[in-house]
Amino acid sequence: MQCDRSEDRHPHAILFNILNRKDSCGLGHDNWDYSGMHNCHCEQRKLVCLRNSASTCQAASEVLVKTIHFMKSLPSFHHLPCIDQLLLLQSCWAPLFVLGLAQEHMVFEVTDIPTASILRNLLLNHQKRTNEQETDDSPTTLQAVHNLNSCLNKLWSLDLTAKEYAYLKGAILFNPDVSGLMSCKHIEGLQKESQRVLHEVIQTLHPNDHGRFTCVLLTASSLRTVAQSFVTELFFRPVIGQTDLLELLTEILFS
C-alpha cells in the first residue's frame, strides 16, 4: 500500500473542509451545558440527538482535526508503514477524540429525536445493514451519552496536564494489539516508551500520588467502551450524511 499524500484528491463532504482547515478556531466551552438525565431504564434507551447541532458539530470537528493533526505531527507515527498508520487510525481515532473532548472541556446538550426522524433513521439503518451487513451498530441512546459523559467526568477528575494528555494519547495510539499490523513489535515498543515517559511525568508532577499512573491507564481503557459508530452518529452524521467518516479521516491523514 502506498501513501497518497497528494492534495489533489477532493472528498465530497463538508466535513473534509472543516477538518482540513489549518486555521482551526478556538474552542470555547462556556456555551455548552450538559443537561441532567433520568435514570429510568426506558429513558436510557431513548434515542437522542444534539440540541445545538450546528455549533456542537462544529466544535466536535475542531477537536477531531486536532486529533488527526496530533497523529500526523508524530515522526514515529509518520514513519510507520502506511497500512499500519491506517489500521491505527481506524482503531484509535474514537478514544483519541474523546480525550480531545476532555482536554478541551467540551460539554453538550442532547434532546429526544422526533418520532418522524426516528422512523427515517430506522429505515436508513435497515437499508445500510442490508447493503453492507454492518455489525458495529451503536444508536445514539441516552445510555450511550451517559457512558460518554462518565468517561469525560473521570478524565476531568484527574485534572491532567497538557504533557499527561500528550503521552496518554501516544500510549493509546500505538496499540500493538490491533490486528494486521506489519510493525507490531515496533509499535509495542512505541507504546511502552509512551507509557514510560507518562509514568515519569506523573511521578514528577504528583510524587505523593502513587496510584495516579494506574488510575490514568484504567481511565484511558474505559474510553474503548465509547463506540465509534455512536461518536459518528452523534457528532458527525448531521454534517456528513451517509458519507463514510473513516474515508474522510484517511483522506486528511494522507493529504
UniProtKB/TrEMBL annotation:
<keyword id="KW-0675">Receptor</keyword>
<dbReference type="InterPro" id="IPR000536">
    <property type="entry name" value="Nucl_hrmn_rcpt_lig-bd"/>
</dbReference>
<keyword id="KW-0678">Repressor</keyword>
<keyword id="KW-0804">Transcription</keyword>
<dbReference type="GO" id="GO:0003714">
    <property type="term" value="F:transcription corepressor activity"/>
</dbReference>
<keyword id="KW-0539">Nucleus</keyword>
<keyword id="KW-0963">Cytoplasm</keyword>
<dbReference type="GO" id="GO:0005737">
    <property type="term" value="C:cytoplasm"/>
</dbReference>
<dbReference type="Pfam" id="PF00104">
    <property type="entry name" value="Hormone_recep"/>
</dbReference>
<feature type="domain" description="NR LBD">
    <location>
        <begin position="29"/>
        <end position="255"/>
    </location>
</feature>
<dbReference type="GO" id="GO:0005634">
    <property type="term" value="C:nucleus"/>
</dbReference>
<dbReference type="GO" id="GO:0007623">
    <property type="term" value="P:circadian rhythm"/>
</dbReference>
<dbReference type="InterPro" id="IPR001723">
    <property type="entry name" value="Nuclear_hrmn_rcpt"/>
</dbReference>
<dbReference type="GO" id="GO:0000122">
    <property type="term" value="P:negative regulation of transcription by RNA polymerase II"/>
</dbReference>
<dbReference type="InterPro" id="IPR035500">
    <property type="entry name" value="NHR-like_dom_sf"/>
</dbReference>
<keyword id="KW-0238">DNA-binding</keyword>
<dbReference type="InterPro" id="IPR033544">
    <property type="entry name" value="NR0B1/2"/>
</dbReference>
<keyword id="KW-0862">Zinc</keyword>
<comment type="similarity">
    <text>Belongs to the nuclear hormone receptor family. NR0 subfamily.</text>
</comment>
<keyword id="KW-0805">Transcription regulation</keyword>
<keyword id="KW-0479">Metal-binding</keyword>
<protein>
    <recommendedName>
        <fullName>NR LBD domain-containing protein</fullName>
    </recommendedName>
</protein>
<dbReference type="GO" id="GO:0003677">
    <property type="term" value="F:DNA binding"/>
</dbReference>
<keyword id="KW-0863">Zinc-finger</keyword>
<dbReference type="GO" id="GO:0008270">
    <property type="term" value="F:zinc ion binding"/>
</dbReference>
